[in-house]
């Protein structure tokens, strides 16, 4: 097994890190470029710039128009996309393996030869404004950003990745080019590839298309945002909509390989699927909601454990009450041996299925490099999951589900007096 899933790693003379995981017999491939920074690295005057820049890099380059970029990938049935996170930014191509050189060529052109024309900047401002409006009009999207703003306050963790209307309209050719030059250089990037290739071919393609000079003396900035103080409080955004959207947050942990392993098991048992406690006890038995699930969020200095649900305003208080009772039960009585065993088999199965896709492997090795600086193989991950004890998972759950530290952000058609009756006690 180890020889099949090994990860090759090299650093080019210009500082670019190259990762490759072979997948024999795969017909498709994944090629991704990760920038080691995301929205947390923005200053207050640059709010939303990483996201704006992600959009701009799909515009015209020295060699291609934006239409030619799109056509070249779609012509071969491939996918070209990007995403902006708080701690990294990604651009990737998924296509048939015969198009590897095209993928390298396109990504190289986008990331190192953008034109930043004034007319493109003006156009993209309008596009991003429409994107903002789409979030505002979709309460299930809006509640997520609303929740982060409320729980993290003025910390960079609480800022919307997309920016604000003021910051976006203030972007100029000079400001976005300066921002690009500050962050986009080889030493600040990781290229991650998975597919049916040889290591030698990947190195040849990387050297051919990504051997750009790294500016002299330019190194990635190790930006550590101080762990923010979380606000354990209640917030309501009143809107005349049919469903009532709930985001309930409790304590979380910063990203650590072992912590991630244990917390993912907790989330699987609590709200990871149709067999989870929350789904069975609140949706199936009580019929209180349509959707309910939990998910952990991990960052370098902080983390969250969140529970999301959509219900009616008449059922919202009871829904929250039962969520809190479920958390309280876990802190008092813990999980059972059978729950832990099922969660382990669920996680191992999910990871194994994901390994069948080159795109997933490309993402996996790239993110492990960014977050851990090392590679954990499929075998390593399976061993780590198997080694989690009942005592360990129950102790972690007690630390997470301290009911004196509960945050509630909601969006829906409810008065403040009605909202005040939702049973959440705040002691921290």
TrEMBL record:
Domain Peptidase M16 N-terminal: 25-164
Coiled-coil blocks: none
Pfam family, one: Peptidase_M16_C
EC identifiers of the protein: 3.4.24.-
Domain Peptidase M16 C-terminal stretches: 172-346
Keywords assigned: Hydrolase
Gene Ontology molecular functions: hydrolase activity; metal ion binding
Family the entry assigns: Belongs to the peptidase M16 family.
PANTHER family reported in the protein's UniProt record: METALLOPROTEASE, MITOCHONDRIAL-PROCESSING PEPTIDASE SUBUNIT ALPHA
Protein name: Peptidase, M16 family
């Amino acid at each position: 097994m180890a020889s099949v899933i090994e990860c090759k790693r090299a650093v080019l003379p210009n500082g670019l890190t190259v990762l490759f995981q072979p997948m024999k017999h795969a017909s498709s491939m994944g090629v991704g470029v990760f920038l080691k920074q995301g929205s947390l690295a923005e200053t207050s005057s640059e709010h939303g710039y990483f996201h704006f820049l992600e959009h701009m890099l799909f515009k015209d380059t020295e060699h291609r128009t934006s239409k030619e970029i799109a056509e070249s990938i779609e012509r071969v049935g491939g996918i070209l996309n990007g995403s902006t996170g708080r701690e990294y930014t990604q651009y990737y191509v998924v296509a048939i393996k015969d198009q590897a050189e095209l993928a390298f060529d396109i990504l190289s052109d986008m990331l190192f030869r953008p034109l930043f024309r004034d007319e493109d900047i003006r156009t993209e401002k309008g596009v991003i404004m429409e994107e903002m409006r789409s979030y505002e009009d979709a309460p299930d999207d809006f509640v997520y950003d609303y929740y982060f703003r409320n729980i993290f306050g003025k910390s960079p963790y609480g800022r919307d990745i997309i920016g604000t209307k003021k910051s976006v309209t203030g972007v100029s050719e000079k400001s976005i080019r300066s921002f690009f030059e500050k962050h986009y250089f080889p030493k600040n990037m990781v290229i991650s590839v998975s597919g049916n290739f040889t290591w030698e071919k990947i190195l040849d393609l990387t050297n051919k298309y990504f051997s750009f000079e790294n500016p002299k003396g330019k190194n990635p900035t190790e930006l550590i945002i101080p762990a923010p103080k979380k606000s354990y409080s209640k917030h309501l955004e009143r809107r005349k909509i049919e469903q009532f959207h709930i985001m309930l947050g409790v304590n979380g942990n910063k990203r650590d390989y072992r912590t991630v392993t244990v917390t993912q098991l907790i989330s699987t048992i609590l709200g990871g699927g149709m067999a989870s406690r929350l789904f069975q006890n609140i949706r199936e038995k009580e019929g209180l909601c349509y959707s309910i699930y939990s998910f952990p969020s991990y960052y370098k200095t902080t983390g969250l454990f969140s529970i999301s649900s959509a219900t009616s305003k008449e059922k919202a208080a009871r829904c929250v009450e039962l969520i809190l009772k479920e958390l309280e039960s876990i802190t008092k009585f813990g999980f059972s041996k059978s729950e832990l065993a099922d969660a382990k088999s669920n996680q191992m199965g999910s990871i194994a299925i994901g390994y069948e896709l080159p795109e997933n492997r490309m993402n996996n090795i790239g993110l492990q490099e960014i977050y851990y600086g090392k590679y954990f193989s499929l075998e390593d991950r399976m061993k780590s999951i198997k080694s989690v004890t009942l005592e360990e998972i129950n102790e972690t759950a007690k630390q997470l589900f301290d009911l004196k530290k509960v945050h509630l952000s909601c969006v829906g058609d409810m008065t403040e007096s009605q909202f005040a009756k939702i049973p959440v006690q705040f002691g921290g």
